[in-house]
Amino acid sequence: MTPTRLFRICRHRVQSIWRREALDRAAARELSFHFDQLVAEHIARGMQPATARRAARLALGNRAVLQEQMRDARRAGWVHDALQDLRYGLRMLRAAPVFTCVAVASLALGIGANGALLGVMDALRRQLLPFPDDSRLVVVKTVPLETPARSANASLPDYLAWKDRVDVFDALGASLVDERDFGAEADGVPERIYGQLVTPSLFAALGVRPAIGRTVTDDEARSPRAAAVLILSHQLWHRRFAADPKIIGRRVRANGVSCTVIGVMPPDFRYPDERTQYWAPLPINPIQARGSARYFVVTGRLKGGVSVTQAEATLAAVAAQLATDFPERHKGWGVRILPVRDALFGWTSTPFLTMEAAVALLLTTACVNVAGLLLARGTTRRPEIAMRLALGASRERVVRQLVTESLLLVFIGGALGLIVARWCVRALTSTFPAPGALAIHHVSMDTRMVTLMFVLSAVVGVAVGLAPALVGSRRPLSSIGSGVAGTVRSRPPLWGTFATAQIALALVLLAAAGLVANSFLRLAGRDLKFDAEGLLTFDYRIPGVEYTRLIGSYNGFPYFEVTQSPSIDLQRVYERVQRVPGIESIAGISYPHLNSLIVPEMTLTLESRAQSSPGDRDGLTASYFLVTPNLFSTMRVPVVAGRDLKNEDTGSTPWVAVVNETAAQRFWPGENPIGRRFTLDIVPDERPREVVGVVRDIPTRRAQTGGEAVIYTSYLQQPSRYRGPWISMFGQMTFLARTTVAPGSIVSDVRRAVADIDPNRPLANVGPLADQLDAQLQSRRSYAVALAIFAIAATLLAAIGTYGVMAHAVAQRYHELGVRIALGASARQIVSLVGGSALRLIAIGLATGLVMALLGARFFSFQLFQITPTDPLTFAAVSLLLAIVAMVACVAPLGRALRVDPTVALKHE
Amino acid sequence: MPKPSDLLQGTLDLLILKTIAREPLHGWAISKRIQQLSDDVLSVQQGSLYPALTRLEHQGWITAVWKDTDLGRSAKFYSLTRDGRQQLEREQENWKRLSSAVGLVLKRA
């Protein structure tokens, strides 16, 4: 088709719709011209004018019919039909405002939420990753063969074996999370910055080149100590170094070491997570290469033509070989290869799929609701429709008109759904970036999402409208005369089913939301066993290089020796901050409470049981913290026996320890632990420690359930030499200060006080502890709230649905009820008659819902804390709630049934 | 005078296109011209002419302007578009193939 013809056709189409009257007039003129010519011809042949006119009329035919045919030829008829249907539909919707509002609101919520979730999940699938040809990029994980769902990262021996023994990767690189304190001398304040230690091959695998400068060379990553070089993220370069064009070669102090900046990555580069701001070489020395800790993220680029399955099979063979050669490290471990997209965004799948299931249920409920209401109205409109059919409207025409009405409803809902979706997308992308993962970028209400919602609306519209339309248009002629008071048996059986289905779906959603909310409340409201209000917290540390020397490796982690105790520096900070006005008391603990990924574990030997069998050893481990004096009084944790650590406990006094109640129970059951002595294993220069106090248990992790033995010792009473994986605990402190003023108000004073000691060492994670604890719960809270909103919406829909069904049932039986009352039925009998059917309906709905919810519950048991997925209390509560809501919805219809006036009802027919 | 034959369905479009190929004509003139050129054998059903013209116009094959006739009345004059001219050629080809095929059948059967 040529463009000019296309243009011509379009113009005609548009004109035939918009200039219908003008075209009709033109056609009439054209026909009358023809008519006049005919008449003139006839007269010319000698006819009388009157006869000529009659002949012309006969020849030309009915001009109105001709005009109609010309209109058909313009192919605009359907548009006008549709416009007519639309106008009619709008009138009908305006005539029933409550119905319209309810239907539109529920559809808007359902369509909007579904559109947003599907859109975000789709955007994640398509999201442009900052790596070329990312389909070949994979992350290699190790999996315990016994529990394959719990995959881990890789150990160094794994990485080295994969790198050396297989031929499926173009490049394979490893990275390890790292953090460094950047000094004050750069541009501004000292701060702690998160980065990654990487092998040089990682950048090759990712296929990314720096925007300026270069990446790490193999020489720079050679053991024992990697070169002090840094590659900055584009963001860090801009933020901290003001995009200094001469950044390459500049020296920066990080962790007390002067490092050279060798490159800046491109602006959109992020790997492997959002907060990574620099990359430094990861040294691999021969001792470390025997470690078994699985902390390394291994990223590889598959060779062209090698599939994930092939690569996995090849690596599985290597894993099997490793398990035979080094059973103590590798036995029971297999391999899994994830496409990089899954590895980066895999965290979204569980919450998103759960929520999608919830909003899909919600939309289904909304559809059922609207379909039920339409069906109800269809029955009410039976006479009208029968009349139209009798007057010659084709069934197709009537169905089309009814579907137009539902489509109208759905598209108004869909349009409002866009607003809901916009809101949902913002909520999803802002509250859900999990720590340590890539955030969801560039998700917006793009055309794709709008198209998706449009399609969704259309599908919903037809689904919702077609059934009622087909049922509604099947009415025989005889129903013209009969009004709402039709025969008793004319209730369509679909009805009750619609209401029961809604109640069942609502119960499923309510149960899910109830379980998640219950679990959240338990988690958020759990007694943390200390008073977090009024505490200011901050982390402080002495860089490891200043007090340690690398001498080997333990479980893949470098194995150091303490060369110079960092406790002197910590003590100076501790004593200096104590003098800041507004601080009532201050104390420190080596790992932050409730917020540590790792808590050191120590094995110990009890003095009184030194000769006991080696089998006891397994039980004799405890979490181990170094603390300052007065920790428990500052945190307001009760000391149940003995005393807190005091300022008098110093390096020159006998070594002491405080244990928690679980430790006391486990190590000295039935005895008084005060005065007992124990020695930590492995640590040379360790001295026996005497227990001087027992404190109440405080959880070390938010979701910790069982009791955990904990030992607290003074940071001043530590060995001068230490070999082990937990070396950093000596140089770091999380301080907690109980303040007499608002904790947030003295942050800058504290900062200044700390800078007095050493201006190059930053405070990290500064802020009121209560706020930080609250922030930890943020994403769980949003999740619970979102589910609750969906569940409440579904409950309301179910209530409206039940109301609709009951109201209609009463209207249907108006005549019958009238007869019954006229024949002497008491109010009680009427109530039991109408109420009985309502109760049956609700009961069936609840029972179905309970079965569905119980079947579905086990799918999210792992999202729950401290309750089982079939928690009887939750199920009872939500069932009761729903039953009450549904019954309340029946009150008004019941009232109407009681007020039926027999004289009116009987006259009605 | 024998009654003029009804037009075969579908050939009307071809005749209209051919008739206005030489000069723009209004509906009345088109029907007269077809009748004349066919020696009064073909007569356009007065009624079917105008829907056909409308359809052709909406398919982009012909275009129309209002002009005064010789007698001073204004009428709608139809003429071929460039696309219409190509369409006419195609239709003529089709017609020739069809009529020769029919001819063959009649001759050989």
Characterise the protein shown here.
The complex is a heterodimer of chains A (909) and B (109). In chain A, strand 12 and strand 13 (557-562) form a beta hairpin. Chain A contains 27 helices and 23 strands. Chain A has 909 residues and is an alpha+beta fold. Chain A folds into five domains: 3-75, no CATH class; 97-127 and 348-483, no CATH class; 147-331, no CATH class; 489-534 and 779-909, no CATH class; 535-741, no CATH class. Chain B is an alpha+beta fold and 109 residues long. Chain B has one domain (11-108): Orthogonal Bundle (Arc Repressor Mutant, subunit A). Helices cover 55% and strands 15% of the residues of chain B. In chain B, helix 1 packs across helix 4 (82-108). The termini of chain B are far apart. The interface between A and B is medium-sized, with 30 and 23 residues.
Topology summary:
The complex is a heterodimer of chains A (909) and B (109).
Chain A: H1 3-18, H2 20-44, H3 49-60, H4 63-73, H5 77-95, H6 97-126, E1 137-144, H7 156-165, E2 169-182, E3 191-198, H8 201-206, E4 212-213, E5 229-232, H9 234-241, E6 251-254, E7 257-264, E8 278-281, E9 297-302, H10 308-325, H11 327-330, E10 333-339, H12 340-345, H13 349-380, H14 382-390, H15 395-431, H16 447-472, H17 494-525, E11 535-541, E12 548-554, E13 557-562, H18 567-578, E14 583-589, E15 601-606, E16 621-627, H19 631-635, E17 639-642, E18 656-660, H20 661-667, E19 677-680, E20 689-695, E21 710-714, E22 732-739, H21 747-757, E23 764-768, H22 769-776, H23 778-812, H24 814-822, H25 827-857, H26 872-898, H27 902-907
Parallel strand pairs in A: 3-8, 5-7, 16-21, 18-20
Antiparallel strand pairs in A: 1-9, 1-10, 2-3, 2-9, 4-7, 5-8, 6-7, 11-22, 11-23, 12-13, 14-22, 15-16, 15-19, 17-20, 18-21, 19-20
Helix pairs in contact in A: 2-3, 2-4, 5-15, 6-13, 6-15, 6-16, 7-10, 13-16, 13-17, 13-23, 15-16, 17-23, 17-25, 17-26, 18-21, 23-24, 23-26, 25-26
Chain B: H1 11-19, E1 25-26, H2 27-37, H3 46-58, E2 62-68, E3 74-80, H4 82-108
Antiparallel strand pairs in B: 1-3, 2-3
Helix pairs in contact in B: 1-4
